[in-house]
Every structure is written in structure tokens, then in C-alpha cells.
Design brief:
Elements: E1 6-9, H1 23-35, E2 40-43, H2 55-69, E3 74-78, H3 84-97, E4 101-104, H4 114-128, E5 132-136, H5 138-141, H6 147-156, E6 160-165, H7 172-178, E7 182-185, H8 191-196, E8 201-204, H9 206-209, H10 211-222, H11 226-243, H12 249-261, H13 277-289
Parallel strand pairs: 1-8, 2-3, 3-4, 4-5, 5-6, 6-7, 7-8
Length: about 300
Amino acid sequence: MDEFKGVFPAVATPMTPDGKLNDAAFRQMIEFNINAGVDGFWVAGGSGESVLLDDEENNRVAEIASDQNRGRIKNIMHVGAPTTLRAAKMAEHAARAGVEAICCVPPFFYRRPPAEIVEHYRIVGAAADLPLFVYNLPNATGVEITPDLMKRIQDKVPQLTGLKHSSVNFYNVRAFVKMGLFCFIGNSRLMLPALTIGAAGCVDGPPSLAPEIWVEIWQAYQAGDLKRAETAQEQGSALADALFSCGEFHAILKATLAQRLGIDCGTPRPPGQPLTAEQRAALKKIIAEHGLTAH
């Protein structure tokens, strides 16, 4: 089995001023992160506004990411959708596009019993026949992937490889690791403590904005330098807290990337709204105070 470990930024999906995918900005964002030493990307997930994109746009995102990365790192492409058919079709396309793995939230809106959730993952996994990561995001989907439910998925889905764990039940990280899964913590503020109990790394939006900080956490921890890792984690956590105190999540992601990279990443898809002038000014100050240089 290929290893999936390290820093996997959950990347934003840049838009043009008229609200379409911004191919050039997306490629620049990818290069910025690769040059900083990340290990892969979580593409078109929550940070990438996947549920606000239509299926053709999600498919195009998979194509751009694969083409730009050219096998240098691992792309984990999100294919989640409310219906199994849509998710399976996007999974099949992602495999053709050349991604290294897929990820998928459980079916959402309607509350599904465990047997239907397992069957959903079985069909989606078979459609791509790539490593499959479950996206455990209960605050958005209304579905908590518990260790018991994960075991049922593991028994029926041979492609299951790991998960992004974005649940408040932090202690389940250890249970998932003991199941032989690559468990990425979905909260970048908790990367270091998660690593100490076996997490494979981190998937979150803030590392896409300052990848050098979270790469430092990972590299320091791998080198056994806990003090250096703690210093970097404190820096990253303080940055994330400061950034997201002044606006909506997707607007902050795009505006911060725009300031660091000098490119227009657009605004969130409606109903998301852009930052106000006051929020943009506050954001610019935070970026300067935290020593994030332009690239």
C-alpha cells in the first residue's frame, strides 16, 4: 500500500471575477505549496467549496490538479455528493484524470442507516478502484463516522485506505490508527498532538496559506525535535486563530492567497460573500504581523 503521510493542504478553488474556475491561479497556488514542501493535496473538499461546484467543475478541478502536479505529490480528490450515482461518476472521472486517491463524505441531507452508508462507499470505491479516504465531517454532514461504522466500511470496501478526521471526538484518532488506516487530523491547530497518537498528518485549509509552518511541524516531529515542532505548532495555531477572526472561511482563504501570491483568487461562491474593506485591511495587517512574506 502506498503511504499517505505528512502535510496535505485542503486547497481553495480560485475563481475568476465572473465566478468561473481560475485555472492559472489554481496552478500557481499548487506550485506555491509544492515549493514549500507539502506532501499532497486534499482537492475540492470543504475548503475547495466542492458542494458549491457543479459536477463538471469538480471534474475539471481534478484534471487541473493532476496535470499540474504531474505525479510529484499525491492528490486526494473529493468526490462526495448526496447521491451515490453522482459520487461514483466523479470518482470514475477522477481516476481517469490521474489522481492518486479519492475521498468522499458520507451521503448527506437525508439521514441514512449504517448499511446504506457502507453500500455508498462500496460503490464509490469500486468506481475508481483507487485508495479511498472517508471524510468524517459530522458538523456539516450530520453523520459521525465512528470506529464501529468504519469497521463495517473496512469489511466491505477493499479500497479503504484512511480518513480525514474532522470530528470533535479527538480520541477516535487512535482507534482509526489501530485499524491500520492513515488518519489525517482535520484541524491544523491539533496537528502535533494528533501526530503523538499516531495520526498520519494533517489535512486542513490553513496549511495551504502558510505551508512552510505546517511543513516545519511535520519535519521537526519526524526528526524527533519536539521543541521545534511545538514552536511551529504554536505559530500555526496563532496564525489560524487570527486569520479566521476577521471573516468567513472561504473568503479568508482566497484573500490570503491573493495577498501572498499576488494573484486574484476571486470570491466565495454565493451564498458566501467577499470580505469587506475593513476585513481586508485587518487581514493584511495580520499577514504582516505573522511575517508571511509575499511569493
